[in-house]
Amino acid sequence: MTLPDVQSLVESGLGRIAAASTLEDLAAAEVEVLGRRSAVVAARGRLGQLAPEERKEAGRAVNEARERLQAAVEARRSELEEAERARRVAAERMDLTEVVTAGASTRGHLHLVTQTRRELEDIFVGMGYRVAEGPEVESDWYNFEALNMPPGHPARSMWDTLYVKLGAAESTLLRTHTSPVQIRVMESQPPPIYVVMPGRCYRRDTPDARHLPVFHQIEGLVVDRGITFGDLAGTIEAFTGAYFGPGIHSRLRPSFFPFTEPSAEFEVTCIFCEGAGCRVCSQSGWIELGGCGMVDPNVFAAVGVDAEEWQGFAFGFGIDRCAMMRHNVDDLRHFITNDIRFLRQF
Ligand code: 2NL
Questions:
Q1: Which residues contact 120 (CB under 8 A, 6 or more apart)?
Q2: Which numbered atom of ligand 1 lies nearest the CA of 180?
Q3: Whose CA is nearest to atom 8 of ligand 1?
Q4: Closest protein CA for atom 4 of ligand 1
Q5: Would you say 202 and 138 are in contact if contact means Cβ atoms under 8 Å apart?
Q6: Which of 23, 53, 124, 230 is the most buried (most CB within 10 A)?
Q7: Which residues line ligand 1 (CB under 6 A)?
């Protein structure tokens, strides 16, 4: 055995190791290059045939060859392990952007009542109104007194109020309508005012298909010079067509509210029979949606608006009720049951 023999043995071994492209192939290469039947092991076996003076140097050369090959195997193994790890990380990488944008089904969507509220806001914003919000826990002043209902006024019994245990008895309550926000708006800015206030309201009620102790209302308020009942009727008609569609109209019928004078209920064409008469509208062709009227001078007095200079109208109706009518929902309680099969439809 000559030193060049050992040299070529190392070179071919290194070539085989470098050619291994997977960990399994490297394991096979290791057996071929360093295993019991390998050229290095055979060379070591032949050392005994050498003359003693040659044996020492040849032995060292064979040992070095074995060590170089062993080191090459280890180096290649860590290279392949690193590549393998990188490949696995890439393959198992969780692409969160993909999950988020995969489609509406995984992301969820706004509740029908919220969608309806936003659509109603958009309609009024399109007519030049601003949107205002206010607290859901209110004082007696904002919920009743400033709205022309002094303590003990019989009109207060129109609302079965939920009171909060805070301060003097019955001084703090969950607002029964969004009208307190209108009072706050009139207190905070001078006319002209064109504003709608959507929000959650509370009344003591036993839940059934048409009543819940928590519901959503949107009210509108206009205060300007020369505002007439005709402006009110036109506004209601414009809103009705915009929300329910061009075939749906509105009409006003005399009514009473403590904060408006004169007052009216407003009805819209029955969207189920389009006015022909059906079970839902009791054959009348109309469905009541809300109330409205000209702002009572006593309300203007409570907030310091001069009723000789400024006139105004206000209206209010249920957001939940609009959603029920437009989407043919037969029970208010669906809105709070949170059954995913119901929610997914909208
Ligand atoms: C209904 C009736 C209505 C108002 C709300 C109002 C507010 C102020 C002054 C005058 Cl500050 N009026 N709001 C007026 C008439 C009717 O709501 O049935 N809502 C569901």
A1: 196, 198, 218, 243, 319, 322
A2: 11
A3: 179
A4: 315
A5: no
A6: 124
A7: 147, 179, 182-183, 217, 219, 221, 257, 259-260, 290-293, 295, 299, 314-318
Strand partners, 222: 194, 313
Please give the Cα distance from 283 to 304 (Å, whole number). 45
Distance CA 178, CA 159 (A): 13
Q: How far apart are CA 329 and CA 346, in angstroms?
A: 11
Asked whether 193 and 178 are in contact (CB, 8 A), the reply is no
Q: In a mutational test of the pocket of ligand 1, which residue from 144, 211, 257 has the highest number of ligand atoms less than 8 Å from its CB?
A: 257
Q: Which residues, 6+ apart, have CB-to-CB distance to 20 below 8 Å?
A: 26, 28, 29, 76, 80
Of 6, 7, 32, the C-alpha closest to 19 is 32
Phi, psi at 137, each rounded to 5°: -100, 120
* Cα–ligand 1 centroid distance for 49 (angstroms): 115
| Residue 188 alpha carbon to ligand 1 centre in Å | 19
CA-to-CA distance for 254 and 49, rounded, in angstroms? 125
Tell me the pTM: 0.70
pLDDT per residue as tens, the chain (346 positions): 676 688 888 999 999 999 999 999 999 999 999 999 999 999 888 888 888 888 888 889 999 999 999 999 999 999 999 999 999 888 887 765 554 555 555 678 999 999 999 999 999 999 999 999 999 999 999 999 999 999 988 888 888 899 999 999 889 999 999 999 999 999 999 999 999 999 999 999 899 988 999 999 999 999 999 999 999 999 999 999 999 999 999 999 999 999 999 999 999 999 889 999 998 889 999 999 999 999 999 999 999 999 999 999 999 999 999 999 999 999 999 999 988 889 989 9
Radius of gyration of the chain (CA): 42
**Which residues does 314 contact at the CB level (< 8 Å), separation at least 6?**
179, 182, 219, 220, 221, 222, 259, 260, 292, 293, 295
